[in-house]
Amino acid sequence: MEMKNKTNEKASSLRWKILRQALLSNPSSSNSDEKSQTSIKRISRRTSHGFNLIPSHVIDDERGSTNCNGSSSIKDARVCYTLPIPNAPQLFLRQRVDNQSDLNDFQICNTYNIDNTGLVCNWPSEDVLAHYCLSHRDIFRSKKVIELGSGYGLAGFVIAAVTEASEVAISDGNPQVVDYTQRNIEANTGAFGDTVVKSMMLHWNQEDTSSVADTFDIIVASDCTFFKDFHKDLVRTVRHLLSKTESSEALFLSPKRGNSLDLFLEVAKENGLHFSVTENYDKEVWKRHEGFLNGSDRDSWPSYETGHCYPLLIKITL
């Protein structure tokens, strides 16, 4: 059954408009239709605030190339994240401004057989993962940790800054994302104490990963189970990277997103991995989830839907 708004636009048409907005640096207001803009907000699962568990604000932006209208487009912004615990350092991450993409982004995706979602924004599940890691920071002490499919890697940076982990690798298969990560590591070196922090280019289907096999005590990842074509490679990567110790585990935070999470867990089971799934794992996350559904926060995320937006906690062991 097709979802339509009052202007009878299909969901697929609205998603193409979202892509168009991302490719046009400064679309003119004369081309903007108010009803279409409202519909785009409804069809898009993104939110400008998400769960808002790690407070942040933009402190400056970087002017990009001049667009066709002669004005300078804004491509990057430096965002300050304030970790809500005493004596925690602030983190300053440079990331892409919302709706700023170009055709080169998609060419790189085709070249590396990856998706472009890591460049788009810090997704809500990453915010929840960072909060969860902050709330359970003792489990990371003296551990070697890797974040898979990190995007801008907020969770990985939080682990590096406050948990006294021995090593944190923040990995992604998109070379543009890895470049952002490396620059952000260099900009925040004073926040990591004795923790060794590094960026890593890691594609889940790459053959030679011998240098990191059986290395990590904890794997973390957010919203990495959506693309069904990557399930087998993701499971293989988890098996390959986790150390063969009794306490090693992977912590995933992922919405169900139709049957994609269930299918991923089937692949994990077929490959000998064990897992548990928890729905209510944090009081504050659950409180905000209920607020988005039927409470005071409903207006801030009008397209919120449990299956697509609320991340479940999946713990995976060998």
Give your account of this protein's structure:
This protein is of the alpha/beta class and 318 residues long. The protein is built from 11 helices and 10 strands. Strands 6-5-4-7-8-10-9 form a 7-stranded mixed beta sheet, sandwiched between helices. A 3-stranded antiparallel beta sheet has the order 1-2-3. The longest helix has 13 residues, at 11-23. It is globular and about 40 Å long.
Assign an overall shape: globular
Largest sheet: 7 strands, mixed
Number of strands: 10
Q: What's the total helix number?
A: 11
Name the helicity range: 25-40%
Cα Rg: 20 Å
Low-confidence stretches: 1-12, 27-32, 35-47, 65-72
Distance between the termini: 41 Å
Q: Please report which band the strand proportion falls in: under 5%, 5-15%, 15-25%, 25-35%, 35-45% or over 45%.
A: 15-25%
Secondary-structure element string: HHEEEHHHEHEHEEHEHEHHE
Q: Class by helix and strand content?
A: alpha/beta
- Strand order across the biggest sheet? 6-5-4-7-8-10-9
Mean pLDDT over all positions? 84
List the helices and strands and how they pair.
Elements: H1 11-23, H2 34-43, E1 56-66, E2 72-81, E3 91-96, H3 103-112, H4 117-120, H5 124-135, E4 144-148, H6 154-162, E5 167-172, H7 175-187, E6 196-201, E7 218-222, H8 231-241, E8 249-254, H9 260-270, E9 274-278, H10 283-294, H11 306-309, E10 312-317
Parallel strand pairs: 4-5, 4-7, 5-6, 7-8
Antiparallel strand pairs: 1-2, 2-3, 8-10, 9-10
